[in-house]
Predict the 3D structure of the following.
Amino acid sequence: MKQLNQNQDQWKTRLGFMLAAMGSAVGLGNIWRFPYVTGELGGATFLIVYLAFVFLIGIPLLLNEFSIGKAGQKDAVGSFQNLAPNTKWHWTGFMGVIGGILILSFYSVVAGWSLFYLYKYLTGAYWSEPDGGYGMVFDEWISNPILPLLWQALFLGVTLFIVIRGVKGGIEKANAFLMPVLAVLMIFMAGYVLTLDGALEGVTFLFQPDWSQLSNPKLYLTALGQAFFSLSIGVSGMLTYASYLKAKDRLPGAAIGVGVMDTVFAVIAGIMIFPAVFSFGLEVNEGPPLVFITLPSIFASMPLGNVVGIIFFVLLTMAALSSAISLLELPVAFFKRTIGMSRKAATYLCTSIIFVLGIASSLGFGIWSGVTIGGQNILGMIDYLTANFVLPFGALLMALFVGWYLNREQAQKNSEIENPLMFNIWYIIIKIIVPVVMIIIVIANIFGYTA
Ligand code: PHE
């Protein structure tokens, strides 16, 4: 094994890495995106396809991405250059850096809304239905040209504050606090919601399939995109995190642990949200505003709703923060090495770029709402493109890299799977199954779905 570069940032413990990787995975994707795509695409049917993708494709690809970072020992681009000098493979990492910047640009807009809602709950302003209703105040808020930008900047400022402190001192410490607290809050919330009248209907929606949805090609692309988005795979953020591991830290268990926890968090978010929605007789296919309009109106009429509202927006903001940290660290690590900047300068630079790009997503709800493609505004467009194309394409390239560019021995060594049978299964998934499944899904969507 190559001598590891001791100057590079490193995690203090393997658990610290696992919590950070879980922090990256569990985010708005689980609590904001998962419930509304599930609501739009038939509940349990979507859930089943999603789970199949997570376990058959997502977790193996997560291990694949980890293996490139740990063996490459550098940032998104540098790791590929280390493993495949004088080739074009590092473009995969480069695309990831751009993808990460784009994701965080819209992600921080939604996270800013969440922070603002937390503030409104802390001050009591949203404890009961405001004049005009939650729908109207939300529409007014997101279409305001200035205020959401301030909250987005505040959120990015907190992210910057952590990333600037480095891997051990900032990222590892922050996640070691955020993740356990998040877990406790979510379990508490799900438990409470299940005690409400009518909650069972929501649970049924989440667990009872509607098989007719299976012929909808959009279901598969969305489930695949959601699996990649939720597991943070394809943009090399997980690759960057794995590059900070020490040689002795094993990968396969970490990939399974992160994948399983991410799924558990998504299902808990579903259990927290759908029963509440059904018990108050509201619609589940509300789209992105689900957590900002539907949930507050539920909280308003629920016993202890004000406390629940505060807890909910605390946890939503915390989950977003731990993911945003990984999305910022991805370009920071790249800029730090390539331009030779200090961590501090790189963090300021990347945060500024992300904020400026994010302005477009934010204004897309107001003065730029005329800018749409296929009915999607700017945020919707970037979200759709990154989740359904950039991430799957990045993950596909990484699978081709390990499956076809590296040889079998290298792949086995880097994956750290010791059991030969398990390795064979994983290798076939990476080499054959992933490329075939992804090509079929993309083609089916190009021909079968034009909305
Ligand atoms: N996985 C995060 C979420 O579910 C989003 C994310 C995507 C983070 C890609 C990092 C990289 O919210």
Summary: The pocket of phenylalanine is lined by residues 24-25, 27-30, 103, 229-230, 232, 235, 237, 323, 326-327 (CB under 6 Å). Confidence is low (pLDDT under 50) at residues 1-7.
